[in-house]
What does this fold into?
Amino acid sequence: MSERTFNFSAGPAALPVPVLEKIRDEMLVLPGAGASILEISHRSKPFEAIIAAAEANLRSLLSIPDEYAVLFLQGGSRLQFSMIPMNLAPGGASADYLITGTWGKSALDEAKKIGPARVAYSSAESNFDRLPTPDQLDLDPNAAYLHYTCNETIQGVQFATEPKTGDVPLVCDASSDFLHRPLTIGHYGLLYACAQKNAGPAGVTVVIIDKKLLERSADNLPGYLNYKIHADNDSLWNTPPTFAIYVLKLVTDWLKDDIGGLDKMYQQNKTKAEMLYEVLDAYPAFYQGHAQPACRSLMNVTFRLPSDDLTAKFLAEAKEHNLADLKGHRSVGGIRASIYNAMPVEGVVTLRNFMDKFANANA
Ligand code: PMP
It folds into this structure.
């Protein structure tokens, strides 16, 4: 296949075309380096400039205060499921978890291997189709932290704003909506995201952490698992994922220079998501949205069709329209359209028009 499809993959996911073109153009010789980004030392001047620019871009896009460290780690978000309790809940302290989907549940399961972890809310009974109202939160005021997943990638439910936790540090898995809108970083104790959905390729995970919390990292933790060691060494304690950080730098350049910042990105994301939810609402008996309307995700639009046969037909015909990777996760079924930052409006318009025609022909 030589044509690029509209790629609705949940992750690794579509990257902006100008970023891919730049990677291609610089692949043999990174300007000023005399070699490929794949061939230079993480301690070389050109790479030092790249990692510094990646951090500066994140700090500028998200207005990250100086009181926060920005770390570039490996191991994906799943390693964070373990590092968070290891570092932030030392000495058997208990942590709270909001479970609004598959990933929050996985984070809880990993935390329980490290120490006590409580469920402060769960929507498991309704197959994770909703979010808590403030009065439904059963918070422990002495919790070491409260962990939640701001966008559940599989179910397609998303918090529009952060839950209120009082003095308990808020820990957020932002893997699947990182950089989709501006944030007030001061609300968080720690926010993390693997890059392969909205920020770059697989291989790097960004951790933004309040420096006060670094004091909790015990000296006897294994070195790689200790946030303080990474912060003290500017993410260069060991060899970082140099190529992934380079691509993240290019993606954040694109967000700043081509898109014009996260306010603009957010407007575009809302416009794209609205187009798809409008079609769901126009054919409610045919396209059954998984998420309750009040907590629909701007990133992952999830819905079912009336039968498995129609779902298979939808996927096959979508492919003929250049619309790829729309199959939903098996735990939810149906269709999932992941429309991260890099999905062009044109791709969403093509999907919306296809959905409209498909419903008219098959409802
Ligand atoms: N959290 C969320 C919300 C995710 O979507 C994913 C990946 N799909 C993960 C965690 C796990 O990330 P990784 O595969 O990088 O460990």
Remarks:
- The longest helix spans residues 262-282.
